[in-house]
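We treat protein structure as text, and this decision shapes the records that our systems exchange. Because each token names a local backbone shape, the row as a whole describes the fold. An entry from our holdings is shown next, in its original layout:
>
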Amino acid sequence: MTEQVNNQLTRTEYAEYKGVSKPMVSKWARDNRLVLTPDEKFVLVAESDARIRLTASLNNSFNEKVGAEEKEKVNKIIEEKGLTELTWDVKSTQLDLETDDAEVLFRNARALREKAAALQAAAEHERFVGALVEKEQVEKLIFERGRQFRDGVMACSRRIAPDVIGKESIQEIEALIQKELRSMLEQFARLPIIE
């Protein structure tokens, strides 16, 4: 923080003292939230701090009201435009981030946040739509795989029977069954994808 001298700081020093950008101090000056010396070259620190504290809640309630109105406008635009048109509008929007005007930067920051949210929502929508599968397709797939598994188990017993005949050791029988079941499951896992 900058040292205060006679309770007066330049606007740049005041921005550093408050931990805000110089454009924000300029905005406070335009909004009459700063108390300046008669020649308007210096900020009176104690008086300006007090005025900013007093007007903070007023500014917040104003921002809340404006925010609610803006949200209502955005919702109306979303209802009027389809997702494709809205996504194109958002992607084509270019913002000026080189300006020193705090209000323009604030609006641009809000627009960037809304643009990022809209692009994220569009990406999630596309991913969601791409991930959806019709119920009939799922039922068909489950039926086909279930039938193939049943057929494999039935064929497995026919293949094992001749090898098991004449075996008296339980370990030998278990080894034969395990070998056949493992082979059947590996073949089942390699089945082609059903479209």
Notes: The two ends are 66 Å apart (CA to CA). The CA atoms of residues 20 and 169 lie 85 Å apart.
